[in-house]
Design brief:
mainly alpha; two-stranded antiparallel sheet
Length: 140
């Protein structure tokens, strides 16, 4: 007999099918069931249960000469509700560019700058226009 062991072998079953489902298959079924949400009979049973509780409460209140409270104002007289929670603060937009006609803050009114790209004993100098003002030196 061989001393080799199989670590991932399926259990033997007639017809070549596994008697024990694989964990991956169970996870797939559970994921698919979760995506479908609550089953219709579950929600119907819940609604029927709540309806029975409401009917029972109404009957008990009537027998005591009272009426069941339905709204927040009836349940907690004088209660003031909090305003709706806003998750984002009010946005205030302010212009980020300086007023037109003033000197450009990027190039200080020069309209650009000289860029030195010299290397290997070769001198290279190029004029690069200022992008924010378009080379005019005046803020837009």
């Amino acid at each position: 007999m061989s001393s080799m062991t199989l670590t991932h072998a399926r259990p033997a079953h007639r017809g070549g099918l596994s008697a024990v489902p694989w964990a991956g298959k169970i996870d797939d079924i559970r994921r698919e069931d979760d995506q479908r949400g609550y089953e219709r009979d579950e929600t119907d049973q819940f609604h029927q249960f709540v309806d029975r509780l409401v009917a029972d409460g109404d009957t008990r209140a009537r027998s005591a000469g009272r009426q069941a409270r339905r709204t927040l104002a009836e349940m907690v007289p004088g209660c003031k509700r909090q305003p709706v929670l806003l998750l984002t603060p009010r946005l205030v937009f302010t212009p980020s560019a300086p007023k037109a006609g003033t000197t450009c803050s990027s190039c200080q009114g020069a309209g650009g700058k000289v860029v030195d790209t010299s290397s290997d004993e070769v001198s290279r100098q190029n004029w690069q226009s200022c992008a924010p003002c378009g080379g005019t030196g005046v803020a837009r």
